[in-house]
Write a structure and sequence with these properties.
The termini are far apart. By secondary structure, the chain is an all-alpha fold. The model has no long low-confidence stretch (mean pLDDT 88). Helix content is 65%, strand content 0%. The protein is globular. It has helices at 3-14, 20-55, 71-81, 92-108, 129-136, 140-150, 154-185, 190-195, 213-225, 237-240, 250-275, 291-314, 320-349. It has one domain (86-349).
Length: 354
């Protein structure tokens, strides 16, 4: 029973025009993705707290629910019922819209991520899927700048300006790192990129041309893009008192919180798709079909999520000047060299048709 057949049944039951089927399927997909984002954020926050507790010799959540599993849900409920306070001198409309503009791109990226084999495990396999991801992920910086400006708070404004400089700087090496798998696969479709890596672990793009380099560039640039430790300067608690979201409370703050952790998993899912074979089995054709492919995808993504959590527990926040120097003086030149070498590799290994 597919979503299309369910939609056709509902349309026939309600005597609606057949053109409503596509709209109903789109609504089903949107709801499924939203539920997935919400549940994944709850799971990520719980395991992050537990892992940080283990690494830092603490217990983590233990009281609410069995081994503290309901603590994150309780925190989410607390945010939903908290009073929504808007500063007197804030721009009310922009102050309200900004959190939505930050959350929606983190949510919409999942539209083109293939969670498994075939068309049933991807919302929409666009032939320009990578271009869509790069474009939609650039929108959240607008929401962060608006949040900082509309709050009428100097710390919020400084956080917004920091975020603008950081995101614009690290978008360049991130896009250049993504170009590597695109050139190796010869396609902008995420599903085609995954299929180009089928055949086992030796076909994964992380080991092609310059091994590991492209993936490391992508991971570091993406962590800066999503304000992940050690690049969480826009939210610097020690100097900016939480930065651009300092004036937010209740559900508006929850949107920022959701966007941050949803984007963290997006980074892992996208890295899995681009560099680690996506939903394909690392053992060639072994269990490389049906729901098994979904399992492979989430196993790889969760392993990368563990790496991000480990980094969060280990490294201190860098300074602003260190962040900008690292991006412009090291990461961008290295990314350009990576693209040049991959391009040369593709040209030399492509068989010419006489």
């Amino acid at each position: 029973m597919t979503l299309t057949r369910i939609a056709q049944f509902i349309v026939g039951l309600l005597h609606l025009p057949q053109s409503a089927v596509d709209w109903l399927v789109a609504l089903f997909v949107a709801v499924i993705l939203l539920v997935f984002v919400l549940l994944s954020v709850l799971a990520i926050v719980y395991f992050l707290r537990k892992l940080l507790g283990k690494i830092q010799a603490r217990l983590g959540p233990t009281r609410t629910g069995w081994k503290g599993w309901a603590q994150t849900a309780a925190d989410a409920l607390k945010l939903c019922i908290k009073e929504d306070i808007i500063p007197t001198r804030a721009d009310r409309w922009i102050f309200t819209i900004a959190p939505i503009m930050v959350f929606v791109p983190a949510y919409m990226v999942y539209v083109v991520i293939p969670f498994g084999e075939g068309k049933h495990f991807v919302a929409k396999d666009l032939n320009i899927g990578i271009l869509y991801i790069i474009a939609i992920s650039s929108v959240n910086v607008i929401g962060i700048i608006l949040a900082g400006w509309a709050s009428d708070n100097k710390y919020s404004l400084l956080g917004g300006m920091r975020s603008a400089a950081q995101l614009i700087s690290y978008e360049v090496p991130q896009a250049l790192a993504i170009l590597g798998p695109v050139m190796l696969a010869g396609s902008l479709s995420t599903q085609e990129i995954v299929l180009a890596q089928s055949g086992g672990i030796r076909h994964w793009f992380v080991f092609q041309s310059l091994p590991i380099v492209g993936f490391v560039i992508f991971l570091v640039a993406s962590m800066a893009e999503v304000n992940h430790v050690p690049f969480d300067l826009p939210e610097g608690e020690s100097e900016l008192v939480s930065g651009f979201n300092v004036e937010y409370s209740g559900m508006k703050f929850a949107f920022f919180f959701l966007a941050e952790f949803a984007a963290s998993f997006t980074v892992c899912a996208l890295a899995t798709t681009l560099f680690f074979g996506g939903w394909t089995s690392p053992f060639g054709s072994f269990l490389n079909y049906g729901w098994w492919t979904v399992g492979w995808f989430f196993l790889k993504s969760c392993a990368l999520m563990f790496v991000l959590m480990w980094i969060r527990a280990t490294y201190p926040r860098v300074r602003v000047d260190q962040l900008m120097e690292f991006g412009w003086k090291l990461l961008i030149p290295l990314a350009l060299v990576n693209v040049a070498i991959i391009g040369l590799f593709v040209v030399l290994t492509t068989r010419r048709v006489p």
